[in-house]
Each structure stands twice: as C-alpha cells, then as structure tokens.
Fold Tryptophan--tRNA ligase.
Amino acid sequence: MRIFSGIQPTGDKHFGNYSGGFRQYAATQAEGEAFFCIVDLHSVTVDYHPPALRESSLNLAAMLFATGLEADRSTIFVQSHNVAHAEAAWLLSAVASFGELRRMTGFKERAEQQTFVTAGLFTYPVLMAGDILLYQTDLVPIGDDQRQHLELARDMAVRFNQRFGETFKLPRGQYPAEGARIMDLTNPEKKMGTTTSSDMGKILLVDRPDAIRRKVMSAVTDAGRDVRRAEDKPGVTNLIDIMSVASGRSPESIEAEYDGQGYGRFKAAVAEAVIECLNPIRERYLRLRSDPVELEKLLSQGAEKARQVSAPTLQAMYDAMGFVRRSGG
Ligand code: AMP
Ligand code: TRP
C-alpha cells in the first residue's frame, strides 16, 4: 500500500499538527510504502520571509524524524526537490474548475487574512492533488481541515481518468478517530492554527513544560464542573481530546476518572500528559536539528527516491494528454 502526506514548512508546529499529522504519519509508515513531503511550494502562496523558509524546512525535517519517522522505512523529502510536483500541478489545472476552487473553505478563510491574495493561494488544491496523485497513493493521513482538499483531489483524478484515460489511482483520506480537529485553547470555537492562533491559543511541539502548564491552565473552559464531551462544552471537549491524544487513553476513561472533580485538577492532569508526550519529542528534535548536514543528506536521498517513483506517472500524464514525447523520455 502506498501512503502519502504533505506538511507545510511554515512556523512552529503545534499540537493540532501532531494530532492530525505527525502522530498519524508515524503510525501509518508501518502499513506500507510511505512518502512524507515537506511542501515548500505551498508555503509561497501567502506572504512569507525567504530566509526563514530554508530554516523552517530543516526544522520540519527534524520534527518528522523526532516524531517517529524512520529514513530507512519511509521517504521524507522536500517538494521543490522533485520538479514533477510543479509540472503535475500545471497539467492537472486542465481538470480543475474555477467554480470548485472558489468554493474551497481553506481558500476563503486564508484569502480573508491577506491583503494580497496570490493566484497560488487559489490554485493550491491543484498542487496538492498533484502531490498525492503522482505517487499512485492509496492512503492520505490528514486532519479534518484537509478533507475538502482531498475530496477535490479525488474528483480531479476521476475527471482526468475519464477525459484522458485511466492514469491515477483513487486515494482515500485517513482521519484520526480522536483529535482530528484540535481547537484553539483561548477560543475553542476555532481550530488551533499556525498563523490563526495566538501564543496562548496553541501548544507548540517545542514548548517547555512551564509554557505547556501555563497555556493549559489558562485554557478557556465552560461553566460547571463536568468533565465530559458535549456540544455546548467545546473547551472541556477539546481538553479531553488533547489528553486522549497525548496519553493514548480513550476519552471515556478520561471522563470516568475526572468527571465531577472540577477543572483545576483536570487541567493539571492534561498539562502533565502533554508534557510527557512532548518532552522526548522536543529532546530528539533538538538533537537532530543540531546536525543540518545529516538532515540535508537524508532529504537528498528522499528526493532521489521521490523522483524515481513519480517519474512514470508524470510521463503517463503527458502521454495521455497528447503532448509530443520528449526524445529519450
Ligand atoms: P499544515 O501545517 O497546515 O501543513 O498541516 C499539517 C497537518 O496537520 C495536516 O494533515 C492538517 O490536517 C493537520 N492539522 C492542522 N491543524 C490541525 C488541528 N487543529 N487539528 C488536527 N489536525 C490539524
Ligand atoms: N494542504 C496541506 C495542509 O495545509 C498540506 C499538503 C500539501 C498535503 N500537499 C499535501 C497534505 C498532500 C496531504 C497530501 O495541511
């Protein structure tokens, strides 16, 4: 089975990324041939700082290994190292409609935050579809916020196959049972996000124990003392989800232990569970990050493999679409 997922090298990664991303990547790599892509081409679709992009890409590589990916088991690479991604995006734009791209909620939300809305932000889901389809992917581990993008990638694959002939496998998304959508600690009505959450709203994977305690203890809860998941208790529900992801315990067992005990004691337990989960990750991350030469070596090996595996599909796309064959190609 082929597994593929992508993650953006922007800003410091947070607990939502751990829950919907990293944690699932490490779990799925055992199930088949896995590719994890640092999607730097996606990161230039909003305003960004060029010198920071290189640093963030290496930070992210270190975090992928720190959270459990193994270079001899999975392929970890940088998107821009395989030009097939940019080419596939252009070719696939022939089967993406203006209307469906305009309906993407990810686009609408991010466009609102920008003074200059790039064309790339609009066509971003086409680039993402190419990432996935180039590898004949079966399974895409992602968080809930990427569901609409994955559905669009499937629609584009079906449309391409119908219009130009059978070329792509149909990928399916895999969403975590618990914690597919971790919410902002200061406002549990919106998701925890890299740019959309304030410092106190998100737990960073590199946060030290005191910062984690401070953030969790001041998280917004709800009226009452109940520790149980309910629609009208988004704050407590979110903390139960966070504890469940951090500790591997079921939400039911957490409710059974803490219900009726008040929020102070519960929050302290959540903080300790998160610290226990993230501490070893932070330590591994710092060790890996101190050796950029080794990281770059692993990434260049990953890129070589990614180029080899995607090349036949890219060629099949050109052929199916009627382009003149390149000599020797
Ligand atoms: P990004 O950093 O936006 O590239 O996202 C990387 C992965 O993290 C994707 O699979 C997202 O679906 C996932 N993710 C981002 N934010 C959250 C969140 N608040 N809860 C759960 N998963 C998330
Ligand atoms: N758009 C995804 C996000 O922001 C990142 C991404 C890019 C991705 N290409 C992908 C995820 C391919 C899964 C598969 O989280």
User: Anything to note?
Assistant: DSSP finds twelve helices and five strands in the chain. Strands lie at 2-7, 33-38, 75-78, 139-141, 172-174. The chain has a mean pLDDT of 95.
